[in-house]
Write the structure tokens for this entry.
Amino acid sequence: MKLFECMGKDLFRSQGIPVPDGEVITQAAQAAGVLERIPAAVLKSQVLSGKRGKAGGIKFPRDAAEAVAQAGELLGQELQGYQVEKILVEEKLTIQHEYYLAITVENSMRCPLILASAAGGMDIEEVPEEMIVRRPVDPVLGVSEYVGREIAWRMGLSGEPSKQFAALLPGLYRLFMELDAELVEINPLVWTGEKLVAADAKVTVDDEALYRHPDLPRVEEKTALEQKAQAIGLSFVELDGDIAIMANGAGITMATLDIIQHYGGRPANFLDAGGGANVEQTAQALELLLATNPRVIFINIFGGITRCDDVATAFSQVKKTRGIPVPVVIRLVGTNEARGVEILRETGIEAYRSMSEAAAKAVELAQKA
Amino acid sequence: MKLFECMGKDLFRSQGIPVPDGEVITQAAQAAGVLERIPAAVLKSQVLSGKRGKAGGIKFPRDAAEAVAQAGELLGQELQGYQVEKILVEEKLTIQHEYYLAITVENSMRCPLILASAAGGMDIEEVPEEMIVRRPVDPVLGVSEYVGREIAWRMGLSGEPSKQFAALLPGLYRLFMELDAELVEINPLVWTGEKLVAADAKVTVDDEALYRHPDLPRVEEKTALEQKAQAIGLSFVELDGDIAIMANGAGITMATLDIIQHYGGRPANFLDAGGGANVEQTAQALELLLATNPRVIFINIFGGITRCDDVATAFSQVKKTRGIPVPVVIRLVGTNEARGVEILRETGIEAYRSMSEAAAKAVELAQKA
Amino acid sequence: MAIYIDENTQVLVQGITGRQGSFHTGQMLAYGTRIVAGVAPGRRGQTVEGVPVYDTVAEACSRYRVDASVIFIPAAGAKDAVLEALEAGVGVVVCVTEHVPLHDEMLMVAAARRKGAVLIGPNTFGVVSSGKCKIGIPPNQVFVPGPVGVVSRSGTLSYEIVANLLAAGIGTTTVVGMGGDRIAGRNFIEVLQDFENDPETKAVVMIGEIGGTAEEQAAEYIRHHLTKPVVAYIAGKSAPPGKRMGHAGAIIERGRGTFAGKVQALQAAGVQVAGLPLEVPELIKEVI
Amino acid sequence: MAIYIDENTQVLVQGITGRQGSFHTGQMLAYGTRIVAGVAPGRRGQTVEGVPVYDTVAEACSRYRVDASVIFIPAAGAKDAVLEALEAGVGVVVCVTEHVPLHDEMLMVAAARRKGAVLIGPNTFGVVSSGKCKIGIPPNQVFVPGPVGVVSRSGTLSYEIVANLLAAGIGTTTVVGMGGDRIAGRNFIEVLQDFENDPETKAVVMIGEIGGTAEEQAAEYIRHHLTKPVVAYIAGKSAPPGKRMGHAGAIIERGRGTFAGKVQALQAAGVQVAGLPLEVPELIKEVI
């Protein structure tokens, strides 16, 4: 779960990491009050997109009147698919230098990894590799100030910036650990000439660990349909094609999408019905597929724990109770295959044994529809 | 620093470890109010002694009137050298079984050690070794519930007590770690038939780490003179003999006490003036020695970082400014020895080179005095 | 030979009394797995499919030689269960549980390293040494002995490919579910190394997917250290960036973890990459 | 030969610009110790007694081969300094600092083990390989080469006994300050083992004190593993229970750590225990 910048900054503040003075507003008129206190301010749209600056989501008002006007423009505006509902009005920093600092998880070493660069302010992917300091963290040793001093040295810092960098890093690591974060990122980390200040805050919390953080406000990035799928425990992603797809297992569902594309089709979704889904869960999954208004439905089942007869029964039920208005192609092999094929035949559908043939057929039907 | 039982129980409560319902009172009359809420109560004197039960520091009043009377007796009373200033009035537990549970530091493995026994309620030293479960903690793995289940199994617990034991152990470990504790001990840990409850709480915090716990109330166990020594950075322990002793280094100071005893003398104190004490610190140390009203003063200096001339100068100053009313024996060897011996000679004292000879002389003078 | 487990492996089931645990205990026994005990706190004295149940791994290990443990415990308790097995000295720990928090996984891996144990998963279908021992949840019928080792990030896709191999007359030594999360107890490189050292394994099938750089790093490893032929299939060619495709690890982020990047890296290391799952058996036939 | 350090050891001083750090840098140089660099954050570019100062151990280690580091940093920063040296790959870390919190010490020890490094201290006077290298704070004059290894929990008492040995014409191989705290990076058993493996050391003097069970455990170790003769002196015979005698470790608690218990254990292991510091040389003469 990604957090809004203003939430990330609140968390930074709680760990003693310096952030600019600022306030969150939800109505344009509130900007005037903040500008009274902070005359040199910047308005930052609180959306989850990483490129909001380039998209016009950040404004630099000259005075309170302009701040109110600009806030009015921003609020309610759509920014790269996200509605602006909140603006962070904060102190404009004097920028002498911009650094980059993040903590993430290194998948192959399987430990926290600190990333830092003297070239901040741009996306880290655009920074040349030799400008990036990568420092894995030994979980026994953790991160105390010397780690910050070492990284600062490798970044080419010395004196006061080095000292302040070393002082703030342990707090960022503590936050990363306590929050079950996948990523905490400060970009840019601004040197004002006097202070290192986190000018932005990007925090992503591990979705699987959210239950351990009941007090953390929830930020929703999923579509309505994706949320519905999540509520019933299915892994579902909306795509922009016209062939609705369901399979059992994340890998085989991806492979099913790929094979549809291979034959020239366009998947409408990713839907992993999981291993061992029963009749009712399968029926719910079918409802989700229908909600994407596809031209064709393609179901690809390799029955292991999942029983082919359960899938066929669910299909038959949904067909009878609410009707299925589009062509359906089903590939069905594995546990209780014969019984499943029989049930499908009774609903008028001939199951395929080969994944490739079935996919080719689904694409053909979609192109005809 | 040892904490009072009531402080330990507050900390237990903060970690979700069940403790009896109770309140702290400082005046006898307050007992009546608590008894209204908790009719079956026990009065527990809040002193640091481990044997307060046997010494009469715990009372079981039949009613509110008796509680007030007993509280009146206890408050202000001296219990094994400690003045009773607070009483914990708490719920009397139904005791079906008493267990023992503690976490301490294992010096040789140099890691936390969990100690547990099904034979609680008595001092752990009195429990037969085969009844004690010892479980070192790997700092990488920490203590989660399975550790509690494993220990419970080794203690012979099962069912509900095992479950509750496993649930409370991680909280006790967290407390041990967060508090920089040397010891956290629950003895007895009472099984009431329904719940495991910490009937007592013994918590010792590492003195060297107290600076990290500014919010923790301070409990003072030192004598006035010991506190004064601590304030000036000296390591000082009052003893009951008549030869005041000062040396430089903890080991050699202990050895000096031993050698005094070896010759039949009785040390009045332990005073380690430290390595590298200067003139002023040495003078302050001498003032402390005089404050014990000794019959003889014995100073044993092996000058490494400590300079013999500094010690001699300090002695000479104190002698001139406030006078030293008792005989002084000084052994002085090492850095700047010749100059030190010369300064002492000017004050009328002949320094010894041999520790043994000097100690024998000090004992002889004390016996004559 | 095979890797990690064989016909002598004695297995413990943690969470044996749950729905998944009890069902798969039956399935594993049916495959021939030597399950000696189960653990479920508070259920000591019960039996599941004839297997005795204990409160703690420590007690089970005091009564039986336990070589491997498989964990069917909900995500919130998975870390606890893995650490319990590791501290009791179990050498191979298979964590089937999905939705395990990432930080718990880092701790599990650190603990397994400290103990010198093999951790498989989490979010894995398990590991099967064909014809000898199955630990985990895959269907029994497709695992028939043969010369190919398989390592994979996903379950059903592996069964599909293993079934394709079998249909072509090719059996398997050991099939390892690396797990679909961002981090895995045993990753591609480590499993490839283990297959390299297994005399029975003549070739390896590696089933990857988009997200992360595990496949790229494996490619680098293969190039320098592997003498045995490797055939790969990578799922997720059609997945858009920024979307998590079911598995926690299956997401293209910040330009990393793309299908094209993985295929390129593998091909540069001499690995044959199948375009469709169906092509894997043909490619394997070419190399063995 | 000697243990831990010798004439080739290149030494780093952490906290070199402080009062203690700079004074003892001069003293160590005067003894002949090869100090190559110092560290003091924010003091990069300065020199102390001619020794160049850097901001970080990492930078110093990038410029010089550093075999050992000695830490003169106040207690609140000692853990940080030890971990910094260990993570930079320094093999012998001597922590002179006193008043280090117990939990920090546990972490230091765990870290040193993880890195396979030798940690001496904290709260130690240091370590001296006589005539070759002195790391720490003891006075220079008493450390003269000879056949006796010394390991001790306390500083000045060691100098006293080493001086007594010298007065009797007996020099030392290495004198190791174990440290006076409850836990020590290198404890009696480990140092005894290292002396056992040092061909130059013919006998060992062990200087213990009341508190804890380090001496009892050392006795057990000596009985089973040591072939070289050991002479011991134990301080604190006259100390009352429950009182901390200067050192954090020097306290008799719950009936453990008594003088009598230690002497008995040592004697049972065949160790000669001196009644007074002065008797140590005579006992050593009897065994070498």
